[in-house]
Amino acid sequence: MAEPAAPPLLEINEAEVEISAIRAQGAGGQNVNKVSSAIHLRFDIFASSLPVEVKERLLCLNDSRITKAGVLVIKAQQHRTQEMNRLDAMMRLHELVNSVAVPPKTRRATKPTYGSKQRVRVAKSQRSETKALRGRVDG
Fold it and tell me: Which residues pair with 74 in a beta bridge?
């Protein structure tokens, strides 16, 4: 059996990504006050060269990293070096864009089969009978 083909990966133009180095939060000793190792990545969805359908699906995501102006903001500060954080931010951007690259399958409405309707009716009558027997016993 043949495996399904992998979705085509979208390329993101490096010129469309704005990367700035900022100081990382949290503990880090004396070095944390001197080194800007965290990365702030900004990607303007409207101004990008992505296909229109991908832009629409990106903007429809309920993601707090996407501003109302259509700018995706990713902050990477997991690693100690600026270069590793830059790679991490770009990887996260690629993952997010490629997650919406393939359009979702359209849902086709189906009808329940005759047999499934019958089984529901039988189960319903059995539950009804069980509950009817729970009443008060007169004696």
Answer: 41
Query: Does the pTM of the predicted model rise above 0.70?
Result: no
Give the pLDDT of residue 36: 76
Q: What is the pLDDT of residues 54-66, one digit of tens each?
A: 888 888 888 888 8
Fold of 14-99: Double Stranded RNA Binding Domain (3.30.160)
Contacts of 29 (CB under 8 A, 6+ apart): none
Distance CA(103)–CA(67), nearest Å, equals 23
Q: Phi and psi (nearest 5°) for 85?
A: -65, -35
Q: In what helix (H) or strand (E) does residue 50 lie, and over which residues does it extend?
A: none
List of residues 6+ apart from 23 with CB closer than 8 A: 32, 33, 35, 36, 37, 38
Enter the DSSP assignment of 135: S
Q: How many residues does the chain have?
A: 139
Q: Residues with Cβ < 8 Å from 9, sequence gap 6 or more?
A: 94, 98, 101
> What residue ranges do the domains of the chain occupy?
14-99
Write the pLDDT tens digit of every residue in 29-72. 666 667 778 888 999 888 888 888 888 888 888 888 888 888 88
